[in-house]
Amino acid sequence: MLEHILLSKSAADQEAMPHVLHYDPWLTADGDNLIAFSRRVFELVGPPLITPGRKHRADAELRRMACTETLVANLVMATLTPSRYEGLAVPLGNGKLTRYNRRDFSTDILRLVIDEASAAGLVAINEAIFKERRTIIVPTQTFQKLIVEYAISLADVGHLEGGETIELWAGSRRSGHKTPVDYEDCREADAMRAEMRAINQTLNDADIRLDGYGTGPIRLVRKFRIDRPEDAQKFDRHGRLYGGFWEGLPKDRRHLLTIGGEPVVDLDFASMFLQLAYIRCGAEPPIGDLYTIPGLEGHRTTVKSLMVSLFFRNAEARRLPLGAKGALPSGWSMERFKAAAMLAHPAISLFFDTNVGFELMALESDILVGILLELARNGVAALPMHDGIMTAASKKNFAAATMEKVSALRAGRPLLVVEKAIPIPSPNNSPLWTTRDALQG
């Protein structure tokens, strides 16, 4: 029965599962059931082959056990979370140890344990594709049956101390290749790390559920960007928050989110990116939706994407990005769009093609972090969404007032807050299957 349910996902279910869980080396087994389950998996994968007559080193066994426990915890998260992950994306490339690594086991050991788990029939491996995706590990039905046998829940998954929450990456948007920077400690990073600790603590103390189910430990990180590894180590570009399961959640499933048993509301800053550009140049924006371009009414999503892209170029924009040409009416080119954008927003057109976008993004992130901290000080948990938040419905007015207050303090004037509708699919169109339902079936 279990196998039949797990294999019977519809096409609609597959479309609702576009994202993977990214491997977190700091996840671990916390509850007794998961500890016992991890030991069972450790026995199933068996020890690596060694020269006859030799014994396995005790310290090597401890490293493999720690690695197995972390891999199992990640696979449990990928399997039981109601966010519907397709699998677990694991970085298996070799590199020097940095502040982002755990020191008690290496990538070589992780690769070995994954291969052993595959040989034992516990996972399937979808190999990495160069510059496209990491290796993806998919738990098999055998692994899923063991979850049921050991009565595992997400409450059994824990998170170790020590994971870095302030990340610095080098790389350009054009190349698509990013490298983690092993930066030197400084007061600025220490202060931001303390902020992230307070935000994560508030989220983990809150009763956050999706479709009635717990979602496991939450650990948000801030990611900053420099162009090249040898550039000055600064934290003034990008800085957005990542790591929340809700960030990749399809919009038609957000109505299933609850905080403290309450449904959530979605609060957003209206046209925030362009508002920040106007603030930067000291001008007042026009009234109304800033992403309205004459002749492109009804194409707001594409207009927004193209407008924002103009701030992330260090050379003149000449061609429409991939996918944009087919999304615009006939006759629209990048040249025509840029001319229309300059006509609609002459004051901020001086920022086009200057690559100032990451600096605006950092201000956006500073505002959001300030909001989360102010709400946390008042006992309110909120889920960040880059330029907005989701919070419990009863906290809507207080959260909106906090957003205006903090934006005024950090940007120089209050930004307009709007509530975005959270769609509720009709019963006929609502996806009913979840991995958790299948495991309990």
CATH class of the domain at 1-158: Mainly Alpha
Mean pLDDT across residues: 89
Q: What is the radius of gyration? A: 24 Å
What CATH architecture of the domain at 1-158 do you see?
Orthogonal Bundle
For the biggest sheet, the summary is:
7 strands, antiparallel
How many DSSP helices? Answer: 14
Helicity level: 25-40%
Residue ranges: pLDDT <50 for 5 or more in a row?
1-18, 430-441
Number of strands: 17
CATH level 3 topology of the domain at 1-158 = Arc Repressor Mutant, subunit A
Shape: globular
Distance between the termini: 8 Å
Percentage beta strand: 5-15%
Helix and strand topology:
Layout: H1 2-6, H2 11-15, E1 21-22, E2 27-29, H3 32-45, H4 58-80, E3 88-90, H5 107-119, E4 123-126, E5 135-139, H6 141-149, E6 157-159, E7 166-170, E8 179-180, H7 187-205, E9 208-210, E10 213-214, E11 221-226, E12 238-242, E13 257-259, E14 262-269, H8 272-281, H9 300-309, H10 324-327, H11 334-344, H12 357-377, E15 382-384, E16 388-392, H13 396-411, E17 417-420, H14 435-440
Parallel strand pairs: 1-3, 7-11
Antiparallel strand pairs: 2-6, 3-5, 4-5, 7-8, 9-10, 9-13, 11-12, 13-14, 14-16, 14-17, 15-16
